[in-house]
Design goal:
alpha+beta, nine-stranded antiparallel beta sheet, six-stranded antiparallel beta sheet, about 25% strand
Length: about 625
């Protein structure tokens, strides 16, 4: 039997083969990725982990799981959109408007009106830094109350010709969602729709669904108090009528077509094709007095229930962020938005719409200097009104001629007991001479609507905003030649030059007009107030009132009144010195006296009869 011997060569061979096998196995293993975006995604070598690292990993996994469970319990069917939702902003922009829409809430978080600046040369924001909020509050069939402002929408931006379409979807699944759809063209008006799909089994129809829209209006103009007090209103169209809320007022309205948060020259408006019912609208004043220095003017809010149609939401709306311009609003036919342009009510607004806006637009087409446009417009208005000034002067001249006769009547019939007889004889003299007190009053009254129409036209004309003329840097606001170190009640803390010039001009106009008015006025009768003294006071009182009140008003208005009074003074001098001949008027009056008296009208007969009866009753009391 052969003896087994130890083979050294075999041992060495086996060791080498084993070493080669171990090397091959290690070198052929895939490389482990150790870099990840979060702790939960890292590949950890458990043989080298420390107790602290193991505790952190376990707590992260637990926290993420608890977070998902908490969101699921809170949001129910809409939990997926919140868990997978991401922060982000989508921009819609055209030549006049820029909007930024946030994924969270699907609402507009920035709105910039392009082409305009604030009074301090900053971009003109209507929405910025959470000053606005748009939210829909609704209940679910699993007894949850949710707010869209807290949920994440998924954005999809597309281009359809010139129309930018932004679809913001709050998803339950691909076939179940709430969608906000924005459609922007080249205008300030943006189509906006709110609709749901497949949520009829998720939205609880027995709970009221509310739309809430709030906005705190940013200050845009130099005079905060004027902007807020005189031109910022909450307008709304309800039951085919446009109305407005005063400051610190709330109202419940039905059949609501639109609401407008108007801030002097700019408006934020929400329109709906399907009218809202039982809507609560509120306006809150944030500027309590002239000394308040605030970045906001008013706070506006709309809260209205939404109706489901076959268990789904379906509303076609529109957003408007743009100028409060009558011409711009007129392009939106059937909306009646032009009524918020604040051109004045009744006849004043009619004069502005049909006369002053076309005249201003025509002059604007010929020149770019708006100060000269105002001056030319003033000349046109005064030329149109000059026949009324002429008639007033003719009446004044006639009264001047017969005034001696009227003075004689006062002497002939003195005392209160002869008041009725004196009045009868006075009217008889005026009638024979062909003079009527109304012939002097009517021209003055006819000029009043023009005065009040222009009082509204210039301060609300956005074309004048930011336009310079001479020392005025903004014709839509007050001009400043000196800043006071203190504030004077009702006057302010600055000195404006145009109101000073307008006050001086109106003083001289009233001074010249005083003699004319005294001629028009019958002699003061016993027991009656002396109108002459009152007019003397008005000569000084009116310019002072203009100086104080117009110091904070639009410089364009003061410029108009300054030029208008200068032109009126010039026209009066021309008429007085070159047109009216008092000798001819006197001869005409004498000729009128010789003519047989015309048959009295029925009104005149009844008036004379009433005066005769009053005179007889007075005689019986003696």
């Amino acid at each position: 039997m052969e003896e087994n011997k130890f083979d050294l060569n075999s041992l060495i061979g086996m060791i080498l083969i084993g070493g080669i096998l171990i090397w091959w196995m290690n070198s052929s293993m895939p490389e482990v990725e150790t870099k990840a975006t979060s702790t939960s995604e890292k590949v950890i070598d458990s043989t080298n982990i420390t107790p602290q690292e193991k505790s952190l990993i376990n707590s992260t996994i637990v926290n993420d799981s608890l977070k998902k469970i908490t969101i699921q319990n809170k949001l129910g069917a809409f939990a997926t959109s919140s868990i997978h939702g991401t922060e982000g902003v989508t921009t819609l922009e055209n030549d006049v408007l820029l909007l930024k829409v946030n994924n969270k809430g699907g609402q507009i978080i920035e709105a910039i009106i392009k082409g305009f600046k604030t009074y301090d040369s900053l971009p003109l924001y209507m929405i910025k830094d959470n000053n606005a909020n748009f939210n829909i509050n609704f209940g679910t069939t699993d007894n949850r109350i949710l707010n869209t402002k807290d949920l994440f929408f998924e954005p999809t931006l597309t281009q359809n010709g010139k129309t930018q379409v932004l679809s913001m979807k709050l998803k339950v699944s691909d076939s179940q969602f709430l969608e906000y759809r924005y459609e922007m063209t080249d205008d300030y008006m943006v189509n906006f729709s709110v609709r749901s799909q497949g949520l009829n089994t998720i939205i609880n129809s027995s709970n009221t669904i509310h739309l809430d829209w709030t906005l705190k209006g940013y200050r845009h103009e130099k005079s905060l108090y004027t902007e807020n007090t005189m031109y910022s209103y909450y307008y709304y169209k309800s039951e085919d009528e446009v109305d407005y809320l005063n400051a610190d007022e709330s109202s419940v309205v039905n059949d609501l077509d639109w609401v407008s948060y108007k801030q002097h020259f700019f408006s934020s408006i929400l329109l709906s094709e399907k009218p809202f019912n039982n809507a609560t609208i509120t306006s809150l004043d944030l500027v309590k007095d002239e000394k308040t220095d605030s970045i906001f003017t008013k706070q506006y809010s709309l809260k209205t229930p939404l109706e489901l149609s076959n268990g789904e939401l379906n509303y076609s709306l529109k957003w408007y962020y743009g100028p409060s311009d009558y011409t711009q609003f007129e392009t939106y036919k059937g909306t009646d938005l032009s009524e918020t342009a604040d051109l004045g009510w009744g006849i004043f607004g009619t004069i502005n719409r049909w006369i002053f806006i076309p005249i201003f637009g025509m002059l604007e087409g010929f020149m770019g200097n708006y100060g000269l446009i105002i001056i030319l417009m003033t000349i046109v208005v005064r030329i149109i009104m000059s026949p009324l000034v002429y008639k007033s002067y003719v009446s004044s001249a006639k009264m001047k001629v017969i005034r001696p006769e009227l003075n004689e009547l006062n002497k002939k019939y003195p005392g209160k007991e002869n008041a009725m007889k004196r009045q009868q004889e006075t009217m008889a003299v005026q009638r024979k001479a062909g003079v009527s007190m109304l012939s002097g009053c009517i021209p003055a009254l006819l000029q009043m609507p023009v005065f009040f129409a222009l009082f509204k036209f210039f301060p609300s004309n956005i074309a004048l905003r930011g336009k310079r003329f001479l020392w005025a840097d903004d014709l839509s606001s007050y001009d400043t030649i000196f800043n006071l170190p203190f504030s004077i009640p009702f006057y302010g803390n600055h000195v404006s030059l145009f109101p000073i010039l307008a006050s001086i001009a109106i003083f001289f106009y009233m001074k010249m007009n005083q003699s004319q008015q005294m001629n028009m006025q019958a002699p003061t009768q016993e027991g009656m107030p002396d109108m002459g003294k009152m007019m003397k006071y008005m000569i000084y009182f009116s310019p002072i009132m203009m100086l104080v009140f117009f110091n904070n008003y639009a410089s364009s208005l003061s410029l108009y009144y300054f030029i208008s009074n200068l032109l009126t003074i010039t026209i009066m001098l021309v008429i007085k010195n070159y047109v009216i001949d008092e000798k001819k008027i006197h001869a005409q009056i004498e000729e009128n006296k010789k003519r047989p008296e015309k048959k009295k009208s029925k009104f005149r007969q009844r008036l004379d009869q009433a005066m005769k009866q009053a005179q007889e009753q007075q005689a019986r009391r003696k």
